[in-house]
Every structure is written in C-alpha cells, then in structure tokens.
Amino acid sequence: MDGDLTVADVQRAVDQWIRRFEEGYFPPLAMVARLAEEVGELAREVNHTYGPKPKKPEEPGGSVAEELGDLLFVLASMANALDINLAEAFVAVMQKFEERDHDRWTPRGDAPGAG
Asked: What CATH architecture applies to the domain 7-86?
C-alpha cells in the first residue's frame, strides 16, 4: 500500500483489515471513546513536540504523524460501521464551510480560488 490513497481506499483498507477478525466493528459509542483516546494521544504528542512539555527520557518515542494515522483509522472504522461515505461527508462539509464562512476570514491574494 502506498501513500497516495483516496478516502475510499482508506475506508476499504480499514474494512478489509477489520473483517479478518470475528469481533468485527465496535459499537458506535465504543468508537467515539476510541476517537477521544486517540485525540488525547495526539494532544500529548503535539505538546511534547511543539509545546512546553518535553518527554521524560524514559518515555517511548512517538510521532504526530502516527497519532494522526491512528485517528484516521478509527474515523474510517466508525464511518464504515455506520455506512457513511467519508468522501461524500467531506464534500458536504466543505460546501457548508464555503457557504457559511466565505466572508468570515480575510482572503489571501495568492490563495487558490482567490480574487
């Protein structure tokens, strides 16, 4: 698997991995708890990497990229379990942002679609 995946590819890969096991998908509330756990782990890594709290010498190494990957996996798992197409959900939310927030921020002259 390479790093040039579509959202559909991500959802398909997660589904293929989870379907290998009898337990299958966790219930939605358990997945929300997993998302919260992963967000906490991401926050910890960001705080260690960019914030004022360096890791203790005995703490294992980690990475912001790894934590973001974990979040993507759990998010795709939840979407799959609820039969949600993340690409379609993303398109809808971008349309919402474009309509609701188009005058909210100061546009950059060099941004794509500016002007």
From this structure: Orthogonal Bundle (1.10)
